[in-house]
């Protein structure tokens, strides 16, 4: 469940405080209106994401909170601060990185962060192989993230090896970093729901340091279809009605197989990108002029497994609808 704690917090405890006024991050006294427009642009991108209502609501709350505390401060009223470190729980492809990136941009525009960059790391980026190595690696990542968000994917893997594992040391460095850079760094720990809950259980001290917990549920078939349409529209493609029905069939099958492994929206992106390549292959040898409609429409056959030419090996992605023909990047 979504848990947000607001209310007066001790500033020494990794909390953002509204001490930094909105304008501080803006170059050369840029008019406030331009800043506002950029905040609205980020919010519009967030709104365009399919589903994720609790996530959107939390971000709206945080935005409102920050703005109102800044205005209160402007009026000489007491302004509360809040801890902005977060836990994202969800399966692969549920939008965690995308939302974190948007948050970085939003918090920059709101004056909570100075840069707003997202540094995504995993265990291997933080944990070293000998004594002292871990502290060095983890500090380097923290440094890169100052002014923005340090996003730790599969964070529970830091607790993997028990007491003697260097992962513990990485956790200690991170906790210290949260304290040292409390005014200008947000830490997000992400991972599968069950693993993250276990991680917090065995590290009870961490729970209170990450008061905002967000769930990224698996997408339903209609949501996955809507995501496909958004992705196609961004690329100026359209699904032909028969192709839409075929895509729905493919997605139903995948969802039945289990979300944890199918990659949710990432799977949709892979299917779409592959269909675009197959459409190109279908059109490229046509002798006559291609119409605008032909160039835009994804047909049912673009979603189906192609007959591979003799001698071409079945390899590459494990996408539904069959593997692609030796394209490298199917992400
Ligand atoms: N709600 C959504 N609406 C539209 N597109 C989405 C949505 N969620 C995810 N996507 C798209 O799906 C792809 C995968 O999303 P993202 O990388 O944010 O997922 P993730 O949860 O970080 O996955 P992983 O755990 O594999 O890193 C991206 O291209 C993203 O733009
Ligand atoms: Mg990700």
Automatic annotation (TrEMBL):
Residue stretches making up the AAA+ ATPase domain: 82-220
Keywords: ATP-binding, Nucleotide-binding
One Pfam short name: AAA
Ranges where the record places region Disordered: 1-36, 309-331
Organism superkingdom: Bacteria
Listed Polar residues bias regions: 8-26
MF annotations from Gene Ontology: ATP binding; ATP hydrolysis activity
Annotated InterPro entries: AAA+_ATPase (IPR003593), AAA_lid_6 (IPR041627), ATPase_AAA_core (IPR003959), CbxX/CfxQ (IPR000641), CbxX/CfxQ_RuBisCO_ESX (IPR050773), P-loop_NTPase (IPR027417)
Family designation: Belongs to the CbxX/CfxQ family.
Name assigned to this protein: Stage V sporulation protein K
Organism field: Neomoorella thermoacetica (Clostridium thermoaceticum)
Gene: spoVK
């Amino acid at each position: 469940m979504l848990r947000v704690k607001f209310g007066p917090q001790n500033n020494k405890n990794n909390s953002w405080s509204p001490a930094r006024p909105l304008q501080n991050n803006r170059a050369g006294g840029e008019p406030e209106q331009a800043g506002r427009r950029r905040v609205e642009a980020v919010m519009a991108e967030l709104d365009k994401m399919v589903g994720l209502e609790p996530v959107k609501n939390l971000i709206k709350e945080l935005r409102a909170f920050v703005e109102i505390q800044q205005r209160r401060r402007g009026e000489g009223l007491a302004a509360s601060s809040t801890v902005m470190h977060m836990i994202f729980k969800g399966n692969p492809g549920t939008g965690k990185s995308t939302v974190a990136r948007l948050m970085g941009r939003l918090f920059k525009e709101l004056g909570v962060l100075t840069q707003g960059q997202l540094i995504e790391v995993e265990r291997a980026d933080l944990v070293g192989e000998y004594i002292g190595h871990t502290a060095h690696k983890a500090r380097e990542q923290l440094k890169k993230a100052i002014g923005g968000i340090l996003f730790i994917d599969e964070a529970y893997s830091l607790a993997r090896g028990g007491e003697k594992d260097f992962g513990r040391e990485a956790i200690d460095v991170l906790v210290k970093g949260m304290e040292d850079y409390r005014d200008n760094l947000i830490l997000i720990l992400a991972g599968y729901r069950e693993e993250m809950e276990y991680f917090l259980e065995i590290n009870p001290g961490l729970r209170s340091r990450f008061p905002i917990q967000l769930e990224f549920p698996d997408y339903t078939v209609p949501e996955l279809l809507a995501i496909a349409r958004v992705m196609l529209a961004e690329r100026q493609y359209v699904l032909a009605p028969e192709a839409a029905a075929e895509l729905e069939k493919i997605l139903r099958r995948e969802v039945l197989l289990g979300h944890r492994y199918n990659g949710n929206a990432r799977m949709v992106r892979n299917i779409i990108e592959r269909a675009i390549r197959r459409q190109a292959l279908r059109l490229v040898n046509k002798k006559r002029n291609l119409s605008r409609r032909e160039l835009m429409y994804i047909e049912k056959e673009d979603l189906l497994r192609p007959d591979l030419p003799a001698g071409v090996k079945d390899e590459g992605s494990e996408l539904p609808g069959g593997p692609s023909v030796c394209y490298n990047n199917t992400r």
